[in-house]
């Protein structure tokens, strides 16, 4: 596998059709340095392009999903360096370049850019005692990888404003209750088991339909309702041009298991 090529992440295929990227900078609680993000983007592109992969899981360690952007790297940056090098902009590759569903399995700290990285994923599962937060205010700055926008859409303005102005953490249990995460589990082991199970289930469906489903749900975050519904209908209509729509509906009628062609 391509594992050996990476220094700050590990890539594996723990279940059929499931690619896993594990952030692996334990000494700094998976602080998200530019070299780490470069590796992450490369790994995600590779998994996205791999015909055998149907869903991707992004995780960290039991102690930290990621404790934020690398503060030591950021500390000396000037405005013009940040601006001219488009600092943090490449993080968005996650949301623009990856068509397969990206599931975040979050244990431990998911702070600042770590929280934002999780929010860029399509689905978050977490542990009850995980610690999410946007503590940038304590560093004299603000969220810079979409936190003020995605967290606000997820939890509403009142909670987001309080979290971002105070830097207070919120638990995985709260994340699940507030709709940031879809589910929370008691332990890291249970979290990984359930995340991989869900990823494997998704990977068992038609890739064409799965990618389209991910795309239309994510559009709901960007478009007004009428535009979103029209977009969905166009994509829905377009799937009548796929082979797997015929395969899936014929198999239902014949009480057979569909054999997806991913076309
Ligand atoms: N960047 C760089 N290094 C980090 C880091 C970060 N975001 N978070 C932790 N580390 C490093 C620590 O400096 C420490 O390194 P040393 O051993 O060399 O001193 C190591 O990881 C272990 O951390 P702690 O000793 O602090 O561990 P702890 O258990 O006492 O505390 C913590 C854990 C509460 C998560 C604490 O590390 C912390 O507050 N980290 C910073 C969290 C933060 O502010 N994140 C937001 C960053 S800004 C951002 O992300 C901008 C953006 O929007 C893109």
From TrEMBL:
Enzyme class per UniProt: lyase
Any Pfam family the entry gives: ECH_1
Gene Ontology cellular component terms for the protein in this record: mitochondrion
Record's keyword annotation contains tRNA processing: no
GO BP of this protein: fatty acid beta-oxidation
Superkingdom of source: Eukaryota
EC number, as in UniProt: 4.2.1.17
Classification via Gene3D superfamilies: 2-enoyl-CoA Hydratase, Chain A, domain 1, Lyase 2-enoyl-coa Hydratase, Chain A, domain 2
Keywords (A to Z) from UniProt: Fatty acid metabolism, Lipid metabolism, Lyase
InterPro entries noted in UniProt: ClpP/crotonase-like_dom_sf, Enoyl-CoA_hyd/isom_CS, Enoyl-CoA_hydra/iso, Enoyl-CoA_hydra_C
GO MF annotation terms: enoyl-CoA hydratase activity
Family (UniProt): Belongs to the enoyl-CoA hydratase/isomerase family.
Protein name: Probable enoyl-CoA hydratase, mitochondrial
